[in-house]
Amino acid sequence: MKSTSFILITTLFLAIISCASKTSENINANDNPVATKDTTTYAHTNNLINETSPYLIQHAHNPVNWYAWGDEALAKAKAENKLLLISVGYSACHWCHVMEHESFEDEEVAKIMNDNFICIKVDREERPDIDQIYMNAVQLMTGRGGWPLNCFALPTGEPFYGGTYFRKDQWVQLLNNVANEYKVAPEKVNEYAQKLTEGIKSSEMLPMVKDQTPFSMDVLTSGVAKIKKQFDYIEGGGNSAPKFPMPNNYEFLLQYYYHTKDKEILDIVELTLDKMAFGGIYDQIGGGFARYSTDKYWKAPHFEKMLYDNGQLVSLYSQAYQLTKKPLYKHVVYQTLAYTAREMTAKNGAFYSSLDADSEGEEGKFYVWSKEELQTILKDDFDFAKEYYTINATGKWEGHYILLRKKDNAKIAKQFNISEEEVVTKIDNINATLLKERANRIRPGLDDKTLTSWNALMLKGYVDAYTVFGEERFLKVAIKNANFIVETQIRKDGGLNHNYKNGLSNLDGYLEDYSFTTEAFIALYQATFDEKWLTEAKQLTNYAIEHFYDPNTGFFFFTSNNAKGLVARKMELTDNVIPASNSSMAKTLFLLGELYYDKNYTDKSKQMLKNIEAQIPQYISGYSNWGILMLNNVKPFYEVAISGKKAHQRRMKLNANYIPNKLIIGSTKSSSLPLLEMKDVNGMTMIYVCYNKVCQSPVKTVDEALLQIK
Predict the structure, then answer these.
(1) CA 100 to CA 347: how far, in whole Å?
(2) What are the φ/ψ torsions at residue 360 (nearest 5 degrees)?
(3) At residue 267, what are phi and psi to the nearest 5 degrees?
(4) pLDDT at position 93, please?
């Protein structure tokens, strides 16, 4: 192709990306079958064969000469003056597999890539710091993002163009355009890359706010008023597709309802949780949620199951049960934790990362059923299952059926003239039969690496489930996982590592590893009164302050000050499917300030919230975790100290109630924690309800304590 100006090439790129960056909602997965790979002989083997990430290893036998991100690849690019082609994805990503099959496994395409670029494959889950930078670049250029993410950068790492999924013909055209432009007009490419990098460095940065006026509930009220207009009052969730669970949004709204008694908010939360639990996004027979629904009905999911979603959703459904006592929510928690134990837990107590969307080259094949299969397997129970799981036009999807529900147990019981208890027994037996049959299928790929941050989210899920339901087995799993983190992921210098697989833990942790782990440890302390977990939480927080904190803004960087080789050091401020690491750290600092009466922690937390305050009412869905912290600052937040031999019994009874604005501190013996000092009364079990470091008169019963919590 003849050379043109860089501006014209950029315009062409934008045209290409506008037609190429389609999501799985726009492209039929069956048009892009992913080939089953030969597991015995390979024509090619590249540098990724030495990696531990399942996603990187998936590409180890591509004809593309892939490198992992590191000094070797970056040095080679500089030495040969070759552009970097940075391709980011993750193991469970369906469209990542499609692009691999169409382009990265193709000899001719690989030759163009190898001749003109140093090609780097990145597992976004192992290296969110790299993904963060190049995703930001693509979003600034195109206004959209997603995975697979493909970004072109100078040999020094500064990006200048990119996009998401490209079909083979578009990808080849783009590769040739980029390579040609760098040869004929390198100065223009360099100039654009430098300007874009400056934009990346400055985007999503907020200054320190000096105004210290008191926080106001009006900020949250204004934000919630806007979000009410975006609800789907029929199907739950947002009023457009695709739909993501967004568990932190609903955790905030539950707490907002608790403080305001806004019934409309409770109704939309319950509607959403009900619809998700009934939908195809939820694995009805095996438990666990898929990453998102491609439609507004929660029917057809993108079938991968992520640890981070399910950990947060266990917490959310546990809290929702604590408030509403709906049996459906308990069922979801127990079934999802059964799935986690069965399919996502290693012998050492660590949790795996995800299950793929695909099996045998087809998205969702593992989870869907034909009518004939169900009739053969279930025999006399088929008619019941047909009604319960909507085996009709509603549940039909691409020639098969996604199991989903439209009727609750009461309606099914009435239809079949049986009791609701009999409905539960019958469907439990049907589920067991189908689960046993499904186990014979070829399973989706398991991403068996362990990530500290995601483990902490599931750890907290187990703790929250134990707190609400009192199941000792949930607590045992939580403690085993917490011990894994302490014994395996915390280094001798006190820092955390991010990853673990096959005995190797070698990536420096990110802020999310510290913030989610400390939140989980503080929750575990409240469930056990074992001060070991508070000590660990405090030590990790102090390490994060030393290595991640920016005194100029009052926020924390996502990467440690030990990080090298990145063109920008980013801050994560906006809550998404996972809460922002800064909002999580701000909550940790708030709790540690309460626990230790430490003004340094408290002041840092308040400053972070003050910095973000103006953003909250504009788009509260993106600041829901900050919203929870705001509630704790504008509404009374209680420290409940329980001292005495029956401290654990009192704790369990107190936790039968949904009281989100509290912190429980307890001990069966003397303790040096500020809230427990001098509270041992002749061996009697006493409860002290404190607010703003002032305690009310001690009481003996939980009922009396509840009267003091207004």
Answers:
(1) 32
(2) 55, 35
(3) -60, -45
(4) 87
Closest-CA residue to 258 (of 657, 694, 693)? 657
Residue type at position 241 = A
Q: Closest Cα partner for 374 from 363, 364, 366, 385? A: 385
**Beta partners for residue 151, in sequence order:** 86, 162
* pLDDT at residue 40, as a whole number: 58
How far apart are alpha carbons 254 and 651 in whole angstroms? 22
Average pLDDT, the chain: 92
Q: Which of 6-10, 333-337, 356-360 has the lowest mean pLDDT?
A: 6-10
Residues forming a β-bridge with 289: 282
At what angle are helices 472-484 and 327-343 packed, to 10 degrees? 40
Q: Please, is 599 exposed, middle or buried when counting C-beta atoms within 10 Å of its C-beta (0-12, 13-18, 19+)?
A: exposed
Greater model confidence, 29 or 173: 173
Reply yes or no on whether the pLDDT at 292 is more than 60: yes
With tokens 């395409």, the residue in question is 109
pLDDT band for position 606 (cuts 50, 70, 90): very high
Residue 45 dihedral angles phi and psi, to the nearest 5°: -145, 125
Q: What tens digit of pLDDT does each residue of 91-107 get?
A: 888 889 999 999 999 99
The answer to whether residue 20 scores a pLDDT higher than 70 is no
Torsions phi, psi for 28 (to 5 deg): -70, 125
Q: What type of residue sits at position 82?
A: K
Residue 15 — pLDDT band, cuts 50, 70, 90? very low
Tokens of 225: 């008023």
Indicate the range of 40-44, 62-66, 399-403 predicted with least confidence.
40-44
Q: Which residues pair with 292 in a beta bridge?
A: 302
Amino acid symbol at 284? Q
Q: What is the pTM of this model?
A: 0.91
CA proximity to 609, closest of 663, 550, 555, 548: 555
Give 246-250's long-range contacts (Cβ < 8 A, gap of 24+): 246/577, 246/621, 246/624, 247/309, 247/312, 247/313, 247/315, 247/316, 248/312, 248/575, 248/578, 248/579, 248/624, 248/625, 248/628, 249/575, 249/621, 249/624, 250/316, 250/320
Q: Quick one: DSSP state of residue 574?
A: S
Report whether 687 contacts 702 (CB < 8 A). Answer: yes
Helices (H) and strands (E) in the chain, counts: 26, 20
- What type of residue is 102? E
In whole angstroms, give the CA distance from residue 449 to residue 457: 15
Q: Which residue type is seen at 25?
A: E
pLDDT given at position 641: 96
Q: Which helix (H) or strand (E) holds 478?
A: helix 472-484
The residue among 231, 1, 266, 25 whose CA lies nearest residue 112 is 1
Dihedral (CA of 414, 416, 419, 425) sign: negative
Whole-number Å distance between alpha carbons of 81 and 83: 7
| Model confidence pLDDT, tens digit, residues 620-652 | 999 999 999 999 999 999 999 999 999 999 999
CA triple 674-527-659, angle to 5 deg: 80
3-state helix, strand, coil in the chain (%, to 5): 50, 10, 35
What region does 190 belong to: left with phi over 0, alpha with psi -120 to 50, or beta? alpha
Q: How far is CA 684 from the centre of its chain?
A: 43
